[in-house]
Each structure stands twice: as C-alpha cells, then as structure tokens.
Write a structure and sequence with these properties.
The complex is a heterodimer.
Chain A (H helix, E strand, L loop, with lengths): L2 E5 L2 E3 L5 E8 L8 E6 L5 E7 L6 E3 L7 E6 L4 E6 L8 E7 L11 E5 L2
Parallel strand pairs in A: 2-10
Antiparallel strand pairs in A: 1-3, 3-8, 4-5, 4-9, 5-6, 7-8, 9-10
Chain B lengths: L3 E4 L2 E4 L5 E7 L12 E6 L6 E5 L3 E2 L7 E6 L2 E6 L8 E7 L6 E2 L3 E5 L1
Parallel strand pairs in B: 2-11
Antiparallel strand pairs in B: 1-3, 3-8, 4-5, 4-9, 5-6, 7-8, 9-10, 9-11
The chains are: A mainly beta, B mainly beta.
Chain lengths: 116, 112
C-alpha cells in the first residue's frame, strides 16, 4: 500500500523558514517523480513544485520560485520542501504527491501557518 | 499557463439524479506522447483529494461506476449518475500535460 506521510508544518512568522518532509513507502520511491501541491484555507489546489526521480530536474510555480527548494533523498525515501522568506499567502495545507499518469497518491498533508 | 475553467461553481442535486461538471482548458491537453493528462478528484471535508478519473476517461481502481469522464482536447466532462449522499464534496479537474500543472477552481456538490 502506498503511503505518504508529510511532517514539518507549524506556525511561523513572516520572513522565516521551514522545511517540510514527506516519507514514502509501499512503492519504489527512487523510480518516481514527486510533487508538492498546496491548498490555502477554504481555497482551491495549487501545484508548487516537481522533482524528477533522480533529482535531475526541478520545476516551480512562479509564486514560490526563488524562495522554495524541492529536494529528495532516495536512500531515505524522503521528499523535502525547504521554504524561505515565508509570507502570509503561503499559509496552506501542503501535500506531497507521486507523479504517475494517474496522480492517484496523495499524503494527508501538513499545515503551514504564516502569521505574526 | 493553462487555465482550467470549471463550471458550475456549485451544484445542488437530488439523491438518485445525475450531476454533470464541465472543465475547459485554455490549451489542448493532448500530450505529444498521445495521452491526455486530465484527472478528476473529489475532496471531501477534511480529507485529501481522492482520484476518480484519470487520462480523461479512465476510472480509478475502486471508484464507483456511477462516475464517468469524457472529453478530449480542451473540453471535458465528469458525470455522476444516481447521486448518493457520500458524493458530496468539492470536485476538481486537473491537468498535468503542461507545466505549470493547473487545477480547476472546483465545483461544490450539495445534496438537495
């Protein structure tokens, strides 16, 4: 069974940093690209970042480019999202998602709240 | 960026009736590999989105056959036949043909 468990969210002040993690199990993590997708409270879904299976390519939404960094450690089956210069508009539930033709597997999310 | 225009914003349907949601993309979602990467999700309150349909018309494993997807190019439809109470929530279309990946703004299904 595919499992994705995000962690690292919390309440932080504007301008600060935070690093999210997503531990994967139930599939060969090193063979799949991975995404971060977020959802602001009572809002829709927003894709924010993609990393290839071998970290050879990374892509970002304009809203986070230059502030967020996606990375992975295939030896630990773990995906990361390092978030710097956080803004109030980054407040959201952050989901990690496996890249397949179906995009079927999502974690339960970790909540990031940016507030003074 | 590909804009996904999803209609209606909300839908109130009686139990046992059919519901239909439209999703239009600003560019064709046909990928050079021949696939159309259009998915439909249902997000129930307090939960992660759950996949219903992928590649525009393929029902995901375990999804009720009351759910069907159709369309190609830029026009797509999700139909829910014989609506049941557990179908309530917000439905999203999602394209992953083009970067950045984009979602429709959602359709809230309510039961009359």
């Amino acid at each position: 069974e595919v499992q994705l468990v995000e962690s690292g969210g919390g309440l932080v002040k504007p301008g600060s940093s935070l690093k999210l993690s997503c531990v994967a199990s139930g599939f060969t993590f090193s063979s799949y690209g991975m995404h971060w997708i977020r959802q602001a409270p009572k809002k829709g879904l927003e894709w924010i970042a993609l990393i290839y299976y071998d970290s050879s390519n990374k892509y970002y939404a304009d809203s986070v480019k230059g502030r967020f960094t996606i990375s992975r450690d295939n030896s630990k089956n773990t995906l990361y999202l390092e978030m710097n210069s956080l803004r109030s508009e980054d407040t959201a539930m952050y989901y990690c998602v496996v890249h397949t033709e179906a995009f079927a597997y999502w974690g339960q999310g970790t909540l990031v709240t940016v507030s003074s | 960026d590909v804009v996904m225009t999803q209609t209606p914003v909300s839908l109130s349907v009686s139990l046992g009736n059919q519901a239909s949601i439209s999703c239009r993309s600003s560019q064709s979602l046909l990928h050079s590999d021949g696939n159309t990467y259009l998915s439909w999700y249902l997000q129930k309150p307090g939960q992660s989105p759950q996949l219903l349909i992928y590649l525009a018309s393929n029902r995901f494993s375990g999804v009720s056959n009351r759910f069907s997807g159709s369309g190609s190019g830029t026009d797509f439809t999700l139909k829910i036949s014989r609506v049941e109470p557990e179908d309530l929530g917000v439905y999203y279309c999602f394209q992953h043909t083009h970067l950045p990946l984009t979602f429709g703004s959602g359709t809230k299904l309510e039961i009359k």
